[in-house]
Write a structure and sequence with these properties.
Strand order of the largest sheet of chain A: 1-2-3-4-5-8-9-10
Number of helices of chain A: 11
CATH topology of chain A: TIM Barrel
Distance between the termini of chain A: 25 Å
CATH class of chain A: Alpha Beta
Oligomer: homodimer
Mean pLDDT of chain A: 95
Radius of gyration of chain A: 18 Å
CATH superfamily of chain A: Aldolase class I
Low-confidence stretches of chain A: none
CATH architecture of chain A: Alpha-Beta Barrel
Helix content of chain A: 40-55%
Shape of chain A: globular
Number of strands of chain A: 10
Structural class of chain A: alpha/beta
Largest sheet of chain A: 8 strands, parallel, barrel
């Protein structure tokens, strides 16, 4: 999917919502356990209920891998089921040397046919470049939503002058924007750092930001939107637990629809501030 | 496996060799393709041929994941086949927020039953701590073997005084040694930076280092050993392609045995320098 196609979906739906399919077999409603593949059945019903309110789905690989080969079969069925007009993100946070990164790119782009994959920057350019492909997207971790983001991402980096003039996550943004343009790369920026988003927009004005951390992790949709929206939206705000586990009863899909719709309504209002 | 048990295997075999099972179905000898699971058959023959010369096996997850659920079945069979006295490492380089990291720990420790998993530090303490378990090992990336290690890992970090007094990888080592001791944590240090290993030993004298980059990537076993060996060895030196693809003909297992034995002989010589 191209950036223009994504933006068209966003304007069509009045939504920049990404739904995280962090599907934990121990947390889904018990009545689904009678299905041959309960995780797929849960995802199928969530997708049917929410697809008109979101533009992207993001399965978190850990939740599928923890069930071994069978879990990956649930993933394969899920990705195949997601409508083609949705942007699909493998939340995998891979990062390895060139020949290995190439194998991961094949895994997510060619085998599972995701549009995008999340990648960690620690190993540098040759761990990221194999993921850059026309028609696909690398979504690089910059400033994550968790407490541990303070350990290294917010460390001050020594500049040319010997003075610290940027944080590690800013160095990541500055270096990475030279590796790929805004049609092939996005950045992960946690909603728990709204005050940093304006600053990030100065470094990467045109790139999409994938923003986790709204909802269960405490980030605010309106703060993130005010700081992060650009002329072509430039945001995908992710919500996982707050939507998919809105209810753990038989009404889970209806409650998920309501939770997604509620976010979409707020997003539509935010989008009106940029569309003139 | 405990640190003592690992050290016992090292002294018993006169080896601190780890063999990387980066098994690429397009590179294995053609006569294996008639087997139902050619990747497992290749691994089985490699393990049989090399197990007396090494103390650890390290499957690289990318090579299994790229074939989807079927590839993970080859991985599952492989890990089950590795003799229990071998230390097993999932080279997965995961790193995610706490609840996700916990799912990855379950994947590698509980589902596949690996001893250890490689983890990336970018997301900080709460992405690493879920992997710390008595009887298992987290192997944290510090200074990797690839060219891109210069992009961020070697960046100067601003110290307390406002002066840059350490590199990012040193900050990772210093912070991480407070998260887990040398019985639960190791560090990845590439063989392509032998001059840094002495300095790393000053920061983490007692920890095992997992050292990739000898062989195909150009690192030297003797330089790494001179700088890195400690009183209880403290090194696992990995070789992947140089051993498993020593030949692509029907003699691949014999050639792999010879390549592993050649490294073991050199390692035995190096170990004699520390054992008095």
């Amino acid at each position: 999917m191209t950036r223009l196609q994504l933006y068209e979906q966003i304007t069509l739906k009045g939504s920049y919502l990404c739904i995280g399919l962090d599907t934990d077999i121990t947390k889904i409603p018990k009545h689904l356990l009678k299905y041959e593949d309960p995780v797929f059945e849960f995802n199928r019903q969530i997708i049917d209920a929410t697809k008109e309110y979101c533009v992207a789905y993001k399965p978190n690989l850990a939740f599928y891998e923890s069930r071994g080969p069978q879990g990956l079969e649930s993933l394969e069925r899920t990705v195949r089921y997601i409508p083609t007009e949705q942007f699909t993100i493998a939340d995998a946070k891979r990062g390895d040397i060139g020949n290995t990164a190439e194998m991961y790119a094949q895994t997510f782009y060619d085998f599972y046919r995701f549009d995008a994959v999340t990648v960690a920057p620690y190993m540098g350019h040759d761990s990221v470049i194999p993921f850059i492909r026309s028609g696909n997207w690398v979504i690089l971790l910059a400033l994550t939503s968790n407490e541990g983001s303070k350990d290294f991402q917010l460390s001050g980096i020594q500049g040319q002058s010997g003075q610290s003039d940027e944080k590690l996550f800013e160095q990541v943004l500055r270096k990475a924007r030279a590796w790929a343009g805004p049609d092939e790369m996005m950045f992960v920026v946690g909603a728990t750092h709204p005050s940093m988003i304006e600053q990030i927009r100065r470094i990467v004005p045109d790139y999409f930001l994938l923003v986790p951390g709204v909802g269960a992790q405490g980030g605010s949709l309106s703060e993130v939107s005010k700081a992060g929206l650009n002329a072509t939206c430039g945001l995908l705000v992710n919500s996982s637990r707050q939507i998919i586990y809105a209810s753990q009863g038989e009404d889970f899909a209806d409650r998920a629809r309501e939770a997604a719709k509620k976010m979409q309504i707020e997003m539509k209002r935010q989008l009106e501030t940029i569309i003139v």
